[in-house]
Amino acid sequence: MVQITDHGALQPGSPCYLLPMTGTQLETFCTELNGGASIGSTLLFQLVNLGRAMIEQRRPWMILRSTDTSKSISAGGTWQTAIDLSTITRFNRFYGDFPVRIFDGSNRVEELRQVPFEERLSYKDEGDTFVYDEASQILYLNGTRSSAGTLYINHLKNGADAATGETSVWAFPSWSHGILGYLAVAMHKGGVDYDDINARMSPENRADAERIMRALEAWDSEKQLSAISTTDPSGNDLDGFRPNAINIPR
Predict the structure, then answer these.
(1) What pLDDT score does 49 carry?
(2) Segment 121-154, tens digit of pLDDT
(3) What is the spatial distance between Cα 125 and Cα 25, in angstroms, rounded to a whole number?
């Protein structure tokens, strides 16, 4: 069995292998967690995907970061040239201080920062900025582009929805997949199927989910620290790389 401790760590016992859960396996897990009582498939996966979304929006997880290079621009493009981002699979939001970069295929890289869409007229001539129409999923690069290039768009992705019979699995590590079941069953017990017994079990399910969450956040924090531990943005100005320097965004 696997014991979930108050310290948020998962303690492996023997024998046990925490395998990734498909939609069908997750449905079985929720039924067993719910004392053998099944939850309607439509309701269950609405609750599962609600829990998944709440987790994914909690922080900019490393595992959800991605860079899209499918878009390109031509020389002469203006602040009114529309770039459709609706074709980027499961695009959530931009990530980073300069989430859009233009690469000419050689050595030139232009970094663009985001400014408010409603202020686009104030920034239309500033070539180091862009605006994004959230409703239409359209990107506009301000200024007039002097050369062609490929867009490198740093962004966070949404996880794929879980569903009955779905064979794909959540991108997060397999040992954490149970959190989706704990959250879904807790919401069901605390709301849809409320009674005295469920009222006592719902907080426990939520507590188990929170323990897994703490383990997930610790796992992700280590990944984020690893990515920046040897970077020093001021190094180019101060005689190169300085070990153990604090990473300060530009």
Answers:
(1) 95
(2) 999 999 999 999 999 999 999 999 999 999 999 9
(3) 54
Q: Are residues 68 and 131 in the same domain?
A: yes
Is 183 in the same domain as 221? yes
> Average pLDDT in the 239-248 region?
56
Query: Dihedral (C-alpha) 71, 55, 31, 9: value to the nearest 10 degrees?
Result: 120
Q: What's the domain range around 43?
A: 2-60+172-228
Tokens of 129: 């900025």
Q: Is residue 92 part of a domain?
A: yes
Residue 192's pLDDT band (boundaries 50, 70, 90)? low
Task: Tell whether the torsion through CA atoms of 167, 173, 178 and 180 is positive or negative.
Answer: negative
Q: What is the CA radius of gyration of the chain?
A: 23
Compute the distance between CA of residue 164 and CA of residue 224 in angstroms, rounded to an integer.
Answer: 33
Q: How far is CA 71 from the centre of its chain?
A: 21
Q: What average pLDDT does range 74-91 have in this prediction?
A: 97
- Report DSSP letters for 151-177, one per residue: EEEEEEEPPPPP-TT-----SS-GGGT
Tokens of 126: 């500033």
| Polymer length of the chain | 250
Above 60 in pLDDT, residue 15?
no
Report the pLDDT value the prediction gives residue 10, as an integer from 0 to 100.
45
If asked whether residues 106 and 180 sit together in one domain, one would say no
